[in-house]
Here is the input.
Amino acid sequence: MPIFEYRCRKCDHCFEVLIRNSAEESTLQCPRCEGGEPEKLLSTFARSCSSKETLSSNCRPSSGGFS
Here is the structure.
């Protein structure tokens, strides 16, 4: 079950939701203002590393930009 990120078009609040099926997504409301039709955001993902891998460049945090 994927977790999606949304932004409310009414109050600009960002929130995450666990979506089990498409019917849940169609009735989704902002938890802050209860506004309908939130915008789905492009999410980033996290990767965990073992202590040995943290020395490699694959697990280093980025400087904030895309590479």
